[in-house]
Amino acid sequence: MNATKYVFVTGGVTSSLGKGIIAASLAKLLQARGYRVTIQKLDPYINVDPGTLNPYEHGECYVTEDGAETDLDLGHYERFLNVSTSQANNVTTGRIYQSVIEKERRGDFLGKTVQVVPHITNEIKERIQLLGNTGQYDIVITEIGGTVGDIESLPYIEAVRQLLWELGEGNGIVIHLTLVPFLSAAGELKTKPTQHSVKTLMESGIKADILVCRTEHELSDEIRQKLALFCNVKREAVIQSIDAKTIYDVPLLMLEEGLDVVALEKLKITDYPEPSLDKWRDFIKRFKNPTQEVNIALIGKYVELQDSYKSILEAFIHAGAKNEVKVHVHPISSEDLEDKKIQEKLFNFDGILVAPGFGERGIEGKINAVKIARENNIPFFGICLGMQMAVIEFARNVLHLENANSVEMDSKTPFPVIDLMESQRKISKKGGTMRLGAWDCTLQEGSLANSIYKKIKISERHRHRYEFNNDYLDQMTQHGLVASGVNPDKNLVEVIELPDHPWFVGVQYHPEYKSTVANPHPLFVAFVSAAQKHHNSKITNNAEINK
Length: 547
Ligand code: GLN
Known about the structure:
Blueprint: E1 5-11, H1 19-32, E2 37-43, H2 55-58, E3 62-63, E4 69-70, H3 73-81, E5 90-92, H4 93-106, H5 116-132, E6 139-144, H6 154-167, E7 172-179, E8 182-183, E9 188-189, H7 192-203, E10 210-215, H8 221-231, E11 238-242, H9 250-257, H10 259-266, H11 278-288, E12 292-300, H12 310-323, E13 325-333, H13 340-345, E14 351-354, H14 363-375, E15 380-383, H15 385-397, E16 405-406, E17 416-420, H16 422-425, E18 435-443, H17 448-453, E19 457-464, E20 466-468, H18 473-478, E21 482-486, E22 493-497, E23 504-507, H19 522-546
Parallel strand pairs: 1-6, 1-7, 2-5, 2-6, 7-10, 10-11, 12-13, 12-14, 14-15, 15-23, 16-17
Antiparallel strand pairs: 3-4, 8-9, 17-20, 18-19, 18-21, 21-22, 22-23
Helix pairs in contact: 1-3, 1-9, 4-5, 5-6, 11-12, 12-19, 14-15
The structure holds glutamine.
Glutamine binds next to strand 19.
């Protein structure tokens, strides 16, 4: 293939239809046929990136290798494709305007009135083509956030219209994701909302090439025919996307529906090879046929919204499949763990994970959870803030440093075991100023971490401001805590572990961002396996007691 081809994914009728999953599934199928694919998400909000957003707004903030704080859909792309994304894969309206305004201030448009059309739309087109122009991809899939008809998506839709025209037929296509609702009173699937959203798209000058129809019920031939006729697409371009048990089923369902084949043909690619999906199928088989179950407590502050911990939940799916274990993750609000009764519940879990987070609320509950895990030999995994909580718990209860804390939570703590790095002290701006993206880490030979990763040099992604305070390292080491991973350049502690405990690991970085279907993260795999062991030892102990 010569020039890069473009697939645009738009959404109609309602939000939350899963454009990200459809885009990732199509990308997976195209990749399985040997094409080099990447996906990009355009978000119509004015924040420059989602880094400053509360997880309740759009779910977790996903971090790429190059330190971009991005939409959680990029996580799906990486987990499906096993290919890294970057800042270029996520663009927001805020970023577009910021760059146009910077150009205006520099004088790039001197003399001209700066307008939505052409300046904003040109900037959008440039951002879309940035990935294609690298020459690294045969196909770029661009997902437009929001729903057609939204005021804020208009410049994106206009940019796509212009780009389709510029690229010419066969070089760019539009997939419109829509909803075909079932009205139980009428006992029928309804096509009208889809017809309307296709019409709205058409008013902006864009004709959908393929319809992907989200539905709870099978679409009959008659309905497909009707959708094709009234929405002006070919019959085979009406693709059913029925509710699936797991998002990982979607690529195979789309294969059955022929989404990739219709897309390839519309892109005038005709000699496509058969897809090779054996590994994917094997993963699904393992995931769906577990031989054992474990229960993990996920202690966090944003537990009402599952999307807040998306990558962690997905990493457990990958690790569970690898171990052939069904991992039940039970979200528990850290604030509730300030209550003794709820703390007792933790004794029954096979593993305890203390999640990443920001701010003071609920931290005492997290510290209580660490204590229970440490004292009762329950496998413990602390991620980012979770690792910091483990350090604070150790300082308070093993070193007896009363009121030890992180300066994030208590700026006047007598024992700032988690502190700000010198370079962070001067920073007052919030956006994009944390320690972000990939950083190297050297693991201590013979440590648990070393045995899990099976190497010494690793690199993991970060998103935090505060650090382990090395002034306390000797004291902690003397009492049995091992700093088994350290950043070689800045000497920052990245991994802690307790060798006297069956499995106690805290990491300052976010391993969950790098777990994919093809490469489940070793720490999650090892944690699940430790939870299995703990589960089995409880059964053996109970059997002994009952003898
Ligand atoms: N709030 C902590 C920090 O900024 C931890 C951040 C996190 O868990 N991602 O260092």
